[in-house]
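REQUEST
  id: r-88c1
  op: predict_structure
  target: Probable transcriptional regulatory protein HB375_15035
  payload:
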Amino acid sequence: MAGHSQFKNIMHRKGKVDAVRSKVFSKLAREITVAAKMGMPDPNMNPRLRAAILAARAENMPKDNIQRAINKAAGNDGENYEEIRYEGYGPGGAAIIVEAMTDNRNRTASDIRSYFTKSGGNLAETGAVSFMFDRVGLVEFGPEVGDADAVLEAAIDAGAEDVVSSEHSHEIYCEQTSLNEVTKALEEKFGEPKASKLVWKPQTPVAVDDETGEKLMKLMETLEEHDDVQNVYGNFELSDALMQKMAG
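RESPONSE
  id: r-88c1
  status: 200
  body:
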């Protein structure tokens, strides 16, 4: 697993998500509203909205909150969010991609730049590191849906390209253009997934030493906690020892 997956698993084991649930709900609501504004308010006709709702359900976001976020898209509430991608280098030269939604581009850019600088890294131009990643579809299921072999077989039948199974989840990767079809095929087999979305997957994950790994995880966590940041991806790999230490 590379940066993003390892980060998510560590936060899961630390119970970090519970500690910042209100912030998580706020980010999910923002994505639902933007998705509903950009397309149909019906999730069956709007794949991005459907993905946003799946993510919200996975975090146990109340139905009323989800519906309120959809309804907000129809109203003229004055909130217009711009989607921005930031790219940079973290400690040890690791490549990092940050996806944000903001109503104040200057504020967000200033904050993100300062986080990179304070960590010993630097923010770069758009396109500086994204060539080291593939833009792919990800369908995620909990471990309870089946063992690794069963999920792999179903994923191949559905047209997926790769599966990464761990104690926490099954991550199924496919071409970004076939995400909807792969999701529907897997849903028939395993039920509703925890997530169905486009992600940045590192082409060649880079192993880092534990000192650098700790600095990178601190930067990832700081970025994730920013109100405007929706997703963070890295191309680094942590040692098993460091993962256990940080999850403890």
